[in-house]
Design brief:
Distance between the termini: 11 Å
Strand order of the largest sheet: 3-2-1-4-7
CATH topology of the largest domain: Nucleotidyltransferase, domain 5
Order of helices and strands: EEEHEEEHEHEEEHHHHHEHHEH
CATH superfamily of the largest domain: ATPase, nucleotide binding domain
Largest sheet: 5 strands, mixed
Radius of gyration: 21 Å
Number of domains: 2
Shape: globular
Strand content: 15-25%
């Protein structure tokens, strides 16, 4: 039986999985990301660990249809290169495909990490293998991937699916991209904390969250949601502000693309049904009538496995045949 290998390349950890052609994970492992020496050790360490584990599991290179990988930075899927992945110290162009194929003798495919996570959720998660699925990941930033009519949307320069940089507040906070009012500035984990600090300054009533902020306690998005669950009125205002912006963004995406599902994942999505219900309420308010009833918003289901599963599906999508 043929296998595929999925790789989720992150700034601190590289996750690997051996999967069946149907997307079932059979083996998983990870290694630390060695970003020293301008990230030159990353690809050799991946080649070494793959060859080592194929040996351990007694799988020959010919039994592997291909290796798929999700990477940060600007990825050229056709050429198999990455540039600008600064958390990996990859500031110059990296010929990843060329190196991986030379080192493993296995076909290699690569795409942006958010796109790859979108493929994972679409294939084996909340996307239910639909042809039209949008994935939004709420982490330190806000990322996304769009699958339209069965294909990933890359755009002319690979910037398709930059959902975090949709403008939701023209006079809002400045984003790391240089613009103002991007979704990322209010819907990411750091954005929620920023909202909390700003809104607490003008809040005059009793609030445990306000006290935590004023006492210099470290707060996170989880702190805010936990306080909202406990009935803290300031926390309720903050999460409602998040719901508003995220619901607005989802309605704009849905009005444009009318996907079957918009799937929300990432660390902030751990707030669960509370987040989902809040976002859906504003989505219903802003979406076009027929979109409102046809596009469904769901929480992601795969957690940390979305990246490796999506990376595996890159191989399947490219219809690799090994004899």
């Amino acid at each position: 039986m043929n296998k595929v290998i999925g790789i989720d390349l992150g700034g601190t950890t590289i996750k690997f999985a051996i999967l069946t052609e149907e997307g079932e994970i059979q083996e998983k492992w990870s290694i630390k990301t060695d970003i020293q020496n301008a990230g030159k050790n990353i690809v050799p360490s991946m080649i070494e660990t793959i060859n080592e584990h194929l040996d351990i599991y007694k799988i020959s290179a010919n039994e592997v249809l291909g290796i798929g990988m999700g990477s940060p930075g600007s990825v050229n899927p056709r050429k198999g290169t990455v540039i600008g992945a600064y958390n990996l110290n990859w500031s110059s162009l990296q010929p990843v495909k060329e190196q991986m194929e030379a080192g493993t003798k296995i076909p290699f495919f690569i795409d942006n990490d958010a796109n790859v996570a979108a493929l994972g959720e679409r294939w084996k998660g909340a996307g239910a293998n639909g042809s039209n699925v949008t994935f939004i990941t709420l982490g330190t930033g806000v990322g996304g991937g769009i699958i339209a009519e069965g294909n990933l949307v890359h755009g002319i320069e690979g910037c398709g699916g930059e959902i975090g940089h949709m403008h939701v507040e023209p006079n809002g906070y400045q984003c790391t991209c240089g613009n103002y009012g991007c979704l990322e500035t209010v819907a990411s984990a750091t954005g929620v904390v920023r909202l909390a600090r700003d809104l607490s300054e003008d809040y005059q009533n009793e609030s445990e969250l306000k006290m935590l902020i004023e006492n210099g306690q470290e707060i996170t998005a989880k702190t805010v949601f936990d306080q909202a669950k406990r009935g803290d009125k300031l926390a309720a205002i903050i999460v409602d502000t998040l719901y508003y912006y995220l619901g607005l963004a989802c309605s704009n995406i849905a009005n444009l693309l009318n996907p079957e599902f918009i799937v929300i994942g990432g660390g902030v999505s751990a707030a669960g049904d509370m987040l989902l219900e809040g976002v859906v309420e504003y989505f219903q308010q802003f979406a076009f009538p027929q979109v409102r009833t046809s596009t469904k918003i769901k929480l992601a289901q795969l957690g940390n496995d979305a990246g490796v599963i999506g990376a595996g599906s890159l191989v399947i999508q490219n219809k690799v045949v090994r004899y």
